Amino acid sequence: MKNTSKKMGFLISLKNGEERRALLPSAIAAIKNKKQLVFETGYGSVFGIEDAEYIKAGANIASREDVLKCEILVDVKLGDADWVESVAKGKLLVGWAHATQAVDFASAALNGDHTVLAWEEIFEGGRYIFYRNREIAGEAAIIHGFRYSKKMPYDTSVAILGNGHTAKGALRVLHGMGTKVLDIYPRKLEKLFVKKMYDYDVLVNCVMWDTSRTDRLIYKEDLKKFKKGTLIIDVSCDPNLEIETTVPTSIDNPVYEIDGVVHYCVDNTPAMYGHTVTNILSEGFKHYIDQIIEGNFSPAIKNAIVIEDGYIVFDCIKEFRQKKGLFVKMK
User: Fold this and answer.
1) pLDDT on residue 4
2) 65 confidence band (pLDDT: 50, 70, 90)
3) What is the rounded distance in angstroms from the CA atom of residue 146 to the CA atom of residue 156?
């Protein structure tokens, strides 16, 4: 999909508690196509940033209705956006899409002949460009979710599933708070985890799950075997995948209980530290804005296109949708 000096609109995500933003005024100086940037009114107000600061930096401010007319639309929580079905066809949509699990979003993107540039798929030198957001996801989930165990970490035994950036963040906080027992289970130790999982007070799920898998780590029937009051902090939050009973919750209403097991399944925990994450996003994303506007995509951006002109590019999206009996469009 080619874009020659098209306008890039920045929308405020309406997801519960979402305070992350894609770009700060201070980053605009590094962007050549400043006049092509259009920010929704009040875009930076959550941080006390006035619209005038974006205008002074060389960008534009417009109503949400007018921003949605831009050819390129940036929404931090793109996969949760409620506007995709209502915009004109053929847009370039940018943000965290998670188009495999976000089936309604993916369906709307396919029907609208849109192209989806998924932030979660942008890598440079083999490393995810927003890896710090994943670390903060783990940190924030522990800080916010642990209270529902009704214990301090130094009075609990904890198992962390996974060994990536999210697990690193969770480990950092738990270690710093003196967790009594703290065990890490990377992928190669999944079978051991399934055997030992009933021994812990808190389970922290940070795995990057293969959506083609048909097995699970925790089944609904397993919950009755856990100690009453066991807390599952599901940072990965993959509905109906590795933990059968996971249902995404919100920052304002973060937990529910099934068979005496408390589930914390907030799927946007970094939003609680919006200022910190926004600095990370702004500094990282600014380097890609000109090439996206001009259509001169680098390999990193090309490789992050998961849907192109309404057709699925990534096989994992196709396979997941076929397994669920959902419609598929591929070239």
Assistant:
1) 57
2) very high
3) 10
**How does residue 50 score in pLDDT terms, banded at 50, 70 and 90?**
very high
Backbone angles phi, psi at 57, to 5 degrees: -75, -10
Structure tokens at 130: 């927003």
CATH of domain 132-267: 3.40.50.720
CA 115 to CA 132: how far, in whole Å?
26
The domain ranges of the chain are 8-128+273-323, 132-267
CA-based nearest residue to 135, from 168, 177, 182, 95: 168
Residues linked to residue 299 through DSSP beta bridges, in sequence order: none
**47 backbone dihedrals φ, ψ, rounded to 5°:** -105, 10
pLDDT by residue (tens digit) across 135-187? Answer: 999 999 999 999 999 999 999 999 999 999 999 999 999 999 999 999 999 99
Q: CATH number of the domain at 8-128+273-323, out of 2.60.40.3080, 2.40.160.50, 3.90.470.20, 3.40.50.720?
A: 3.40.50.720
Helix axes 315-323, 103-111, angle to 10 degrees: 110
* Tokens representing residue 265 in the block: 């399944």
Q: 330 pLDDT exceeds 90?
A: no
**Residue 92 near residue 1, CB atoms below 8 Å:** yes
